[in-house]
Amino acid sequence: MLGEFGETVVIDWGIAKVRGLHDIHAKGLTETVRTMRVGDAEATSKTEYGQTIGSPYYMPPEQAEGDPEKVDERSDVYALGAVLYTILAGQPPYKGMKVREFLEKVMDFDPKPIREVEPNAPLELCAVVARAMSRKPDDRYPDARALVDEVQQFLSGGLVSAYEYNFAELARRFIKRHKRVLTTASVAAVALLVTGVYSYLSIRAQRNIAIEEERKARIAEGQAKEARDEAVIAQEQAEIARDEALQQLYYANVSQVQSAFNERNLGAARETLANAPVANRDWEWGHLLQLLNADAMTLPAGGSRFAFGGDDELITCTKGGSVRVVNRTDGALQRTLIENAGTGFAFATSAGGTRTAVASSTGIQVWDTQSGAVLFEYEDPSPGSSRRFLDLTPDGARVGALCSDRKARVWNVDSGEITFELSVDQAQGFGIYFSPSGDRVIVTRSVFGENGFERTFDVLDAATGTILGSHKVAFPNSAHSVAWSSDGNHFAIGTDTALQLWTLEPFARQYHFDLRFGFPGTIAFSPGGEYLAAGSTDGNVGLWNVETGKGDIIAKAHPDQVRAVAFSPDGTLFATGSDDTTVGLWSVPNLDPLHVYRGHESAVFALSFSADGTTLASGAFDGQCKLWDMQNELRYRAAGEKLAYSLDAGLLAGLVGTDAAVWDLQNGHRIRTLPLASQEVPAIALSADGRLAATATKTPDGQHAVRIWDANGAEMGAFTTDPNVSGIVFVADDTVLLQKGTTLESRSVPTGDIQRTWSGIEGFTVSPDGQHLAIATADAETESGRVVDVYRVDQDAPLATTRSLSRLPLTLEFDAAGQTLVLGGGEIESDDGFALEWAWGAVVTEPERIALPGAMTAFAEHPDSGKRAYGVRDIVLYGSGPDPITLTGHERPVVSIDFSPDGTRLVSASQDGTFKIWDASKGREILTLHASANTAAGQVIQPEFTAFGDEGEWLLTLTNGGVPPLVLRAFPHDAAAYPGGEEELFADRVERFKRSRR
To answer: What Cα–Cα distance (Å) separates residue 836 from each residue in 322, 765, 821, 912?
Structure first.
């Protein structure tokens, strides 16, 4: 400020700031402002000693923020404006509040207008103050000089730029300023001048209005755009939320379907699966659909009555008694023998299905199945009675049934003559069963005796009716099931409490087994007559040696009553059908459980193998007949100890007894057999293209014979080596690697000559093209280090070498291109692990280290998307987003990982005994596949490998401990892949799809 002699007096250097230079007190100023936010009202009235901020009442908003870099000349303008405000209003712009309240107020709100405090304050000066104290620095006077000039203009009677004058104010100000020099003549000039000024002001006013309207329009347009953007954002967020909700619904649906399937509630499983969101369906949806439709074909006829005929035909019956002949390959109707015979009918066929018999309410008929011609007809004199008791001899020459007059009769089909008849006092307990030769027949019946109705069975000569033997069943039992051995020398009868094995000559009971029986077909002899199988009402299944009477019983083979049993034509398998809606498959004579067929929704009443053994038919109370593919041997034939696979060719090799076999993974059919004739097979291998196989077997002199086989199963080469072979790997058509403990040998396929040897190996892997080999050995230079060398399989010297410190042996995996090697190990002094990605190809680089929460035990890469998965106990997934995703759920280390062909799904196998399916984008577990559910109860399994097929139609899972490989199949998850239109029932389209693949 100026002193009384015009000198400059500096009042407070503490608030001075040099423009353009950084304020060294900026940090202190910021801290001071922060401190003032907790001050009191008194603190706002003056500058405290030691503060470098100035009086808070006159502080501009940018200074109140505590940022000194924003303070400049316009901040001084604000402070001067605040001083002028105080002069005009008689009080500061803000008063009566604590510093904290003031700082918040000055940053967010303008002070109260001066005219509201002092109504007589000059309007022009009020406008000057408002402009000087604008909250935005850009709206203020540029500097203090401009503010001083504005005040001088007011004091001298000039126009103030901050104030908007109207015409009257301008006129008054002009006249007041020039009234002494105005004359009459000048009045006109002034009038003209005033008119001009008025016009100018009018134009300016209109312009200002237009500008304001334009500004408002721009604001409105901006608000509209903002509203549209907000609406778009809201819609996008709603769609994201909807998609997420559908995704969660889909996950829940999949889980519910799996639970319902495991609980045999197939109806609920099918309904839930059909309602799963379409857009989210993927491999697991197709897999569950396949599980619900695992049969080769479903026919809407059959139930408890059907039979295989000749020329790939199946004879079926509907619940209403319509008998039809269909093609068992595609289900096409060939002919109809009878329509709507009624619900109370009986059905029988001759061996091979050449003749078909039906007993209905009107009588009995026998047809030639091929031509449909009626060969025999008996019209019952008392129509309306039920006919549930009928049999036809295997050669179709005789037919027997119970008639309405309570006579059991046997007729000659070709002549129509009655062979014999037998009185039956009560229909309850009746049955008729011809022997395989057709010359004997067993009739079970109720005869009225001294103790009322007594249940008996008689063995009669079918030609004469002569009774060859008779026996009373202990009261109150009934004979529910009867079966003949193939040679006709034995028959078995199942009653309410026991299974009895009888001989015909002499007529005598040979064995008695305590077992509860129901009906209809719960007893069966093996084709050779060596074994007798039976199922009980308790769900037990037994198998006995006919000669010795010794056997085994599997308690609770089914949780509910067993209704039917049947042997395969070769006698190595037998099937059981139960009230639990499932069909079980068992080995003979070991009674090993091989498979469980699920598909029916009610009790299974009938079972039958086709003559060639390729198909098993099952009939249920739901009236459906299902055909099952018995050529799919993988689920029970291949032993789990020694297996080899070629994913590119879709083949699997394994052991069957003393031989080896190669199966097609797509359908499980055996395509060739390798005759090893050896009980000891330490190794088996397939070439990458599946054309070659290699086996190692133990020779009589204790050596190992390595044999090479071609695609037809013919031996094309062999050589002998020492008895240490534990593994074989094809690396080219002409080279195999033999693993012998810590030694690896390269051998010529044509000659068997040793080409090169590597010793002391801790691990090795072969590149996808079979041309390169990575070997890990102990590093002699360090105590815990490993050396990894990459070789061409046909060269001695390594192409590249790297070293790694690891407390554990390294896991080695090539990437899909074979140009990068992934090495997984464990940190030396912690439980953490790492993966080293080592590009060893055209340009050898230093390995890139990736930290993992444990030692890496598995690795997989999806070549198209670049996704990479590292298995520890959890799975660390890269490539599904900016950050890695951790997939948690396994309880023990992961041993194998693979991506689906499209990269959307990930499968993992773990030492915890499970295989899991994951969403590879979200890291979400979708299905947990317990392989133990497909093995005997309590059997310990150890998953070893899992991988998707090239087309994603199947998933291979391998375990140790003798468990057969599990091939999980999947139907397409795109509804367009199923024949037919959207107007058709999807279940019908699925059925057509199944038949088209046979």
So the answer is: 70, 15, 8, 26
Give yes or no for a contact between 534 and 512, defined as CB atoms under 8 angstroms apart. no
Percent helix, strand and coil across the chain, each to the nearest 5? 20, 35, 40
The amino acid sitting at 722 is: D
Kindly report, residue by residue over 944-970, the tens digit of the pLDDT.
Answer: 999 999 888 999 999 886 778 889 999
- CA distance to 301, 318, 576, per residue, from 314 (Å): 11, 13, 20
Q: Is 328 helix (H, G, I), strand (E, B) or coil?
A: coil
Residue 549 near residue 501 (C-beta atoms within 8 A): yes
916, amino acid identity: K
pTM of the model: 0.76
**CB distance 191 to 182 below 8 Å:** no
Rounded-to-integer distance, Cα 547 and Cα 485, Å: 12
Distance CA 854, CA 838 (A): 19
> What span, in angstroms and rounded, lies between the C-alpha atoms of 283 and 956?
14
**Secondary structure of residue 160 in the 3-state scheme:** coil
Contact 588, 631 (CB under 8 A): no
Q: Give the distance from CA 24 to its chain's centroid.
A: 63
Reported as half-sphere exposure (CB side, CA atoms, 13 A), residue 659 has a value of 10
HSE (CB half, 13 Å, CA atoms) of 870?
25
Q: What's the pLDDT tens digit per position in 380-419? A: 887 665 556 899 999 999 999 988 888 899 999 999 999 9
**For residues 299 and 327, what is the distance between their CA atoms, to the nearest angstrom?**
11
Which DSSP symbol is given to 181?
Answer: T
Alpha-carbon distance 65 to 945, whole Å?
Answer: 64
Residue 168: φ, ψ to 5° = -60, -40
Contacts of 110 (CB under 8 A, 6+ apart): 133, 135
Q: What are phi and psi of 241, to 5 degrees?
A: -65, -40
Q: Are 579 and 603 in contact (CB under 8 A)?
A: yes
Q: Which residues of 484-493 are buried (b: 16+ CB within 10 A; e: fewer)?
A: bbbebebbbb
Q: Which H helix or E strand runs over 656?
A: strand 651-656
Q: Which two structure tokens, joined as six digits, stand for 845? A: 């680089």
Question: What is the 8-class DSSP label of residue 2?
Answer: B
For 101, 434, 467, 496, 731, the CA distances from 470, given in Å and listed in that order, are 114, 16, 7, 19, 72
Q: What is the C-alpha separation between 289 and 848, in angstroms, rounded? A: 43
Peptide bond into 972 cis (omega under 30): no
What is the average per-residue pLDDT within 491-512? 92
d(CA 956, CA 272): 26
In sequence order, what are the residues at sequence separation of 6 or more whose Cβ sits closer than 8 angstroms to the Cβ of residue 680? 697, 698
Task: For residue 559, give the DSSP letter.
Answer: S
How far is the C-alpha of 12 from the C-alpha of 9, rounded, in Å? 10
* pLDDT tens-digit readout, 698-750: 998 889 999 999 999 999 999 999 988 999 999 987 899 999 999 999 999 88
The secondary structure of residue 352, as a DSSP letter, is G
**347 by DSSP, 3-state: which?**
strand
Query: Are the beta carbons of 653 and 687 closer than 8 angstroms?
Result: no
